[in-house]
Amino acid sequence: MATVDEIARMPRGGPDASCLDRLLQTDRQEYLDRDDVDPRVKRSVVRALDWTGQVFGNHERFAAIALEEVADVADPAILELGAGHGGLSRTLLEWHPTATVTVTDVEPASVAAIAAGDLGTHPRATVREMDATAMDASDGQFDLAVFVLSFHHLAPAAAARVFTEGTRVATKLLIIDLPRPPAPLHLLRLATMLPLAPFAPFVHDGVISSLRAYSSSALRALARHADPAIDVQLRGGLLSPQVVVASRAP
Questions:
Q1: 178-201 pLDDT, tens per residue?
Q2: What are the structural domains, with CATH classification, of the chain?
Q3: Of the four listed, 79, 158, 202, 247, which is most buried by Cβ atoms within 10 Å?
Q4: Dihedral sign (CA 65, 154, 82, 226)
């Protein structure tokens, strides 16, 4: 198992990343993660994420993946981490008539915006601030914890803590995030995005997200570092989103 220092230095492409893959990463933060950015810019990125989720069907696709993981639970208690705009939680509540959803984000402005909308008054929703790396919840409180399109924001040491915490508070931890394609395809993807990055905040953050995305080998290493007893199932991840389901043995 990797040491704390080895995990902290691990490339986003994983311990076995190629030299080129190791170059295709950055410590630069997205607008969403910075404190020196105009709040209007951050809101524009969040709105764009919600818009793309609606237009391209991501909210529905990710909700279907999440509900499949709790198909055998009559009244599932679901925790959404890094909710941002709340689109996924809204879909989960629409699609499952008895599910309860705790909608969380680490950013106070996002939590306030979600609480001010329909989710703030929904009888089966609770909106609150929560850090995915240090979850303020009891052991086994939820049937499922969901972290969608936000895992890449975290550096490796913090990302490993999500595996620790997520499998502590929930029976299953579901992570859905950007794929990290092989280096040649990654270069091609970046080349199509870079010309627009200086002008569109959403594309700017998309480029950084791509460079910070974890590979499947990196995800396995993070889970193993968090606890060797955590079982990890992965699927997708070449051109489609990576899907990770993590759980602890009973």
A1: 999 999 999 999 999 999 999 999
A2: 4-248 (3.40.50.150)
A3: 79
A4: positive
